[in-house]
Specification:
- Two copies of one chain form a homodimer.
- Chain A is of the alpha+beta class.
- Chain A has one domain: 3-Layer(aba) Sandwich (oxygen-dependent coproporphyrinogen oxidase), CATH 3.40.1500.
- Chain A is built from seven helices and ten strands.
- In chain A, β7 and β8 (192-193) form a beta hairpin.
- Chain A is globular and about 65 Å long.
- The interface between A and B is medium-sized, with 20 and 20 residues.
- Chains A, B: Pathway: Porphyrin-containing compound metabolism; protoporphyrin-IX biosynthesis; protoporphyrinogen-IX from coproporphyrinogen-III (O2 route): step 1/1.
- Chains A, B: Homodimer.
- Chains A, B: Its EC number is 1.3.3.3.
Chain lengths: 288, 288
């Protein structure tokens, strides 16, 4: 092994550790924020329950699940997995000419009980093969028909926060990431969008990895700060059976997307990830 | 066109019409039987609601949906579709070297309300490309853990009826069809079966097409006769919230299979079928 190659490996290792550390901090921040909202004005303390799992083939993770009164279902998951790359796990990406991979990531999903409060999802990841890069995104899904429009105040707050996370970084083009998101969260067979978008990126690797890592961290913080605001403004609103029925209906669309089109779900299932973590994105109660 | 070819086309046409006629009769029989069970001892008459749809590209169908008190959700659908065959619609079947198809079929799904009553599914179809053949199957899915075993009385009744439908026909090997079914309804990522099986067949074409058509008809009749017996014996049983929770849980597995692995769903969506018919297999209320 020559010196240059060895330096490159050392640098990659440091960045891997930094990514893991950022994701752990985000997990703490996100879980504590959601618990705070869940337990506001309540004596009963609902908390995230943590489960550690190991992956046959290499690595493992930690799933954190909350089933509450305000937060009907939430999953905040960390994982670091590595080993042989199963055929087709990275889609049909011909540029990845290796059979080994290492990946670390955080994924967050929140399905609140109050139909006025939108569901949100975020994930951030670092993938290492013969090269390394970052991917992820965050998006919002209002569950009432009347709120499923770009002018909805919650959606505006969410988009603003994502724009804010992007704007600090010259190499990040917010409009492109927003466009990616709209393209990605699309339910082909219904010819409709899953939600109202956000940002989505993959194969991110700018000249300064430290900037990419700061960007990931900003996405995570902006995500949870804006979502806290959105949650707090909605969870006391009165709702009835009709609102609930509408919510369960759109949750069905959410399931259709996740099981039929979501690459994260497919990657997770194909690489022998933890099923409960992967499918914890599915809403608690759904109707068709 | 030579005479032999012309005779063959004429024969195929007759068989297509016979298949359509058999499926229509079965639709009548199945809908009336389910309505009878739904409305037993009740003044309120819940009936199937029929909707006709046309397919862009050729053909169309009729979906019949019931949302009742006993039958929480049921779909009984007929369709006859034809035109150009979308790439990949017939899986990776290299033996089909044509780009035109004609298909007619019936599909039935029943999700009863009482958690003690199992869900069932059946579909029968005739597919014509440069050749023609039959496919289909019927299977049972108990939704309580305690009933998810081969010795469960409902499952025994169901399997007996399928065996009975097969045994009259020397070219039909029941054990093979049962094995196919177990293989097919398998949720790979969970390493578990969707339900408790039944029969499943494809590319069926014996020397006597009239016998194949009689077999399809027998599968349909045996299916609804045995299921009526199973329904009637379960719908008066007392159930509580725990039973319901278990039912919603296993319905989630049902959704996972249908959206991720079911070839009928994939074929339907890829050939521009009617989404409401295709996805009417999804249970009314589901939990994860």
């Amino acid at each position: 092994m020559n010196k240059l190659h060895s330096l490159k490996l050392e640098e990659t290792k440091k960045n891997r550790e930094k990514a893991q550390s950022i994701f752990k901090n985000l997990r703490d921040k996100i879980c504590s924020t959601l618990e705070e909202v869940e337990n506001q004005g309540s004596h009963k303390k609902n908390s995230f329950i943590s489960n550690v799992w190991n992956r046959k083939g290499g690595g493992g993770g930690e799933s954190n699940n909350l089933r509450g009164a305000v937060i009907e279902k939430s999953g905040v998951h960390l994982s670091t997995v590595f080993g042989s790359l199963p055929l087709g796990a990275l889609d049909s990406d011909k540029s990845v000419n290796t059979d080994q991979f290492w990946a670390t990531g955080i994924s967050v999903i929140v399905h609140p009980k109050n139909p006025f409060a939108p569901s949100v999802h975020m994930n951030l990841r670092m993938l290492v093969t013969n090269d390394y890069w970052f991917g992820g995104g965050a998006d919002i899904t209002p569950m009432l028909h009347s709120k499923r429009k770009s002018s909805d105040p919650d959606t505006l707050i969410f988009h603003d926060s994502m724009r804010h996370a992007c704007e600090k970084y010259p190499s990040i083009k917010y409009e492109k990431l927003k466009e990616n998101c709209d393209e990605y969260f699309y339910i082909k067979h219904r010819n409709e969008r899953r939600g109202l978008g956000g940002i989505f990126f993959d194969k991110l690797k700018s000249e300064e990895t430290s900037q990419d890592l700061l960007f990931l961290n900003d996405v995570g913080y902006n995500f949870i700060e804006s979502y806290k605001k959105i949650l707090v403004s909605n969870i006391s609103k009165d709702w009835n059976d009709d609102h609930r029925a509408e919510q369960l209906h759109y949750r069905g669309r959410y399931v259709e997307f996740n099981l039929m089109y979501d690459k994260g779900t497919i990657f997770g299932l194909k690489t022998g990830g933890n099923i409960d973590s992967i499918l914890s994105s599915l809403p608690p109660i759904v109707s068709w």
